[in-house]
Design brief:
Elements: H1 10-22, E1 27-33, E2 44-45, H2 49-57, H3 63-72, H4 77-84, E3 91-94, E4 100-101, E5 108-113, H5 114-119, H6 121-145, E6 150-152, H7 161-173, E7 178-179, H8 182-188, H9 198-202, H10 207-217, E8 223-225, H11 231-248, E9 255-258, H12 263-276, E10 283-286, H13 292-300, E11 307-310, H14 312-315, E12 326-334, E13 337-340, E14 357-363, E15 370-377, E16 387-388, E17 390-392, E18 404-405, E19 408-411, E20 414-416, H15 426-438, H16 442-445, E21 455-458, H17 459-472
Length: about 475
């Protein structure tokens, strides 16, 4: 990952300059959260934390950067000297990558000198908004596939090389099993997969010769694309001929891929033809502009599909291409005392939660199924309480709630080291995410009209928010 210290908006530098002069000893605490879930879903899969860590580890300014700043003639030499001697002091807490996160929950926080922490806003949001968006879309598609593997095929449709590479990483966190993107596969140790393009078949005099040639070079990786001409009249019959030749030579075929046409009908007839020919284990893979809605429809029709190759609608999250995560100041500190801060709005939906906070996932004793989340002030000792007064965190439903009793509270935010450490594999993050999903109620995971999952705030946090909103109104 290249050095990204200039990936920010100009006003961040202008504010940092002002903070360095007017409030040089003040620290700030910023929360990263979102208010709305893409595709009218219930939650977001957090992703991108490792890239945030790397970006903060590498954060510095080169002589070329400083020369550019000087050419802008916006800031004095004292600020340029500060940037030249920049040393990262910020501290990071976050939910582990792959954690399902609900609206208004801070899933990453930055604490540090106000000027430094302000400079990180755009960079941090750029990373986590993108990867969390794609991981969330992949989770939806994985859910729709009902245990069938999802393969990420979207590099050619991604919005640039970085989106292709880090989008692939996020897709795997969200549930994809492999990728066609060789660079992402190498960089993140992801299984790489693929068959052939139509141009392979077109380059030969006939389809059968194209299939036989492929099988000659790849006898143990013969997944044949059968829709270049006619799936049922030539593609599948020619594939079966080659499969029989492979078996006679001691090899087993992988299967076929269909990239166009009436997929439900074609896969049903292709499955029958393969089975009748003695190849019940040959897999049928489909591709071509798939998303969770199409996957669900195909499987509801009984289409015998084994794998899904998904491109543009995954790598771009085409149906909901933005996760509007925000980076909001929640507290400042001079010397040792933290002062909670709030942003007030005419819309209660944009009223922020002040102070340093912790987020808990709540379980019944002895249960592995969560029943709610809780946002609390960081200094509240939630884990030892037997009864707790709470409010609904949803600003539309903001009201007191029956006191919580008989619960076990698991904290979700943890300190993250900015010193080089062993990197967790993407496969391990995906496994963690899958485990976390099993702890959520099934109705909350539905793709259409999911049940609301309760997210509460403690009475102490709710009262602090109300008091500060009144003072600053």
């Amino acid at each position: 990952m290249r050095q990204l210290s200039l990936l920010t908006d100009l006003y961040e530098f202008s504010m940092a300059n002002g903070f360095q002069q007017a409030l040089p000893t003040t620290w700030g605490h910023f929360d990263v959260f979102f208010r709305n879930v893409p595709d009218d879903g219930s939650f977001v899969i957090s992703a991108g934390l490792q890239q945030v860590v790397t970006a903060l580890q590498q954060f510095h300014f080169t002589p070329a950067d400083l020369a550019y700043f000087k050419s802008l003639a916006l800031w004095d030499d004292d600020f340029l000297t500060y940037l030249a001697n920049f040393h990262m002091q910020c501290q990071l807490t976050a939910m582990p990558e792959g954690t399902p996160v609900f609206p208004r929950e801070p899933f990453l926080t930055i604490t540090g000198p106000l000027a430094q922490a302000q400079l990180l806003e755009t960079l941090v949001l750029n990373i986590v908004n993108h990867q969390s968006l794609i991981a969330t879309k992949a989770r939806r598609m994985t859910y729709a596939a009902a245990g069938r593997p999802i393969m990420e095929f979207g590099a050619r449709r991604a919005q640039g090389p970085d989106s292709a590479v880090y989008g692939t990483r996020a897709a795997v966190i969200g549930g994809a099993r492999s990728t066609s993107n060789v660079l992402a596969a190498q960089k993140f140790d992801i299984p790489v997969a693929g068959t052939m393009a139509h141009s392979w078949i077109q380059a030969f005099d006939d389809e059968l010769t194209a299939f036989r040639t492929w099988a000659h070079y790849y006898p143990d990786n013969s997944a044949l694309l059968v829709d270049t001409y006619d799936v049922l009249a030539s593609g599948v019959p020619n594939a079966i001929r080659v499969f029989k030749e492979l078996r006679a030579a001691g090899h087993e075929p992988v299967g076929i891929r269909i990239d166009s046409g009436d997929v439900a009908a074609l896969t049903t007839q292709a499955r029958a033809m393969l089975d009748e020919a003695g190849f019940p284990a040959a897999k049928i893979t489909i591709s071509n502009a798939l998303d969770e809605t199409i996957i669900t429809a195909l499987l509801n029709q009984g289409a015998p599909i084994d794998n899904f190759g998904i491109g543009e609608k995954l790598i771009t999250s085409a149906s909901a291409p933005v996760l509007s995560g925000v980076y909001k100041l929640a507290a400042t500190k001079t010397e040792t005392q933290w002062q909670p801060k709030i942003k007030v709005s005419a819309s209660r939906a944009k009223l922020t939660m002040p102070g340093l906070k912790q987020v808990y996932r709540l379980y019944r004793p002895g249960s592995q199924l969560a029943f709610a989340d809780l946002i609390a002030l960081a200094d509240e000792d939630i884990t030892h309480l037997t009864e707790l007064s709470v409010y609904d965190s949803n600003p539309i439903k903001f009201k007191t709630h029956q006191p919580l009793t008989n619960f076990v509270a698991q904290p979700l935010l943890h300190p993250v080291s900015l010193t080089p450490t062993e990197i967790t594999s993407v496969a391990a993050i995906r496994e963690y995410s899958q485990q976390q999903l099993t702890a959520l109620p099934k109705p909350t995971q539905r793709l259409v009209n999911p049940d609301d999952y309760p997210v509460y705030m403690t009475a102490a946090l709710a009262n602090l928010q109300t008091e500060l909103a009144a003072v600053n109104a």
